[in-house]
Specification:
The protein is mainly α and 70 residues long. The chain has one domain. It contains two helices and two strands; from the N terminus they run E-E-H-H. A hairpin with a 2-residue loop joins strand 1 and strand 2.
Amino acid sequence: MCGQPLEEVKTEKDLGIVFSSNMKVLTQCTEAYCRESRVLGLINRVIRYKNPTVLITLYKSLVRPHLEYR
């Protein structure tokens, strides 16, 4: 394009979805797992009173929707 060679990439992220050159979803799943694992770690560090009802509510509102969406 305009005299510049195009760079070949292995993955591309568009609208939050990761497309890989081999069309496998491993990269997408790994990225979602890492992101939600960080959210679970944050919940574990921040919430001092670990009532199961509170933890389930936080999981259902902060983690699960992102895993189901992707």
